[in-house]
Design a protein that fits this description.
about 5% helix, 1 helix, about 140 residues, 10 strands, five-stranded antiparallel β-sheet, mainly beta
Length: about 140
């Protein structure tokens, strides 16, 4: 690295200690699935053919927190419930990448997050990485 350049603030590694199984469970829902939520709680994909609803844990109690996401995709995809276990530092977050893929981040520790891409066609995590966030240094 050249003088004056900053080191990356994020480094990515494989999940060698099985953090995903400790903090995230993917459940494929069967049968007719509809998540009943008021419209303001639904987070739609760009074309509005899919949505998710976040059900946070009670933040009035001390951590750890256990929350859920329900994802309903377009025809031909799976309905999925994500069980997010033992997250204490920040709320987990999902972002639609397209109508069938969603990016997620779960904060496990103050500077450690699990990042993933969920494919609603298969109901599988097609990308899983562990992200370590640190202050930039020279």
């Amino acid at each position: 690295m050249q003088a004056g350049q900053k080191k990356p603030a994020v480094s990515y590694q494989e999940d060698k200690t099985d953090l995903f199984s400790q903090h995230l469970q993917v459940q494929i829902l069967t049968g007719q699935v509809a998540v009943y939520a008021v419209e303001k709680e639904k987070h739609y994909s760009e074309k509005k053919s899919a949505y998710f609803v976040y059900f946070p844990d009670n933040k009035e109690k001390p951590p750890p927190y256990y929350s859920s996401f329900f994802l309903v995709g377009p025809a031909g995809t799976k309905a999925v419930k994500l069980h997010v276990k033992n997250h204490a530092f920040k709320d987990p977050a999902l972002t639609w990448l397209n109508e069938k893929w969603v990016f997620g981040r779960i904060w496990v520790k103050e500077c450690l997050a699990l990042e993933f891409v969920l494919d609603l066609e298969t109901g599988q995590l097609i990308q899983k990485t562990v992200a370590y966030f640190s202050a930039e240094t020279e």
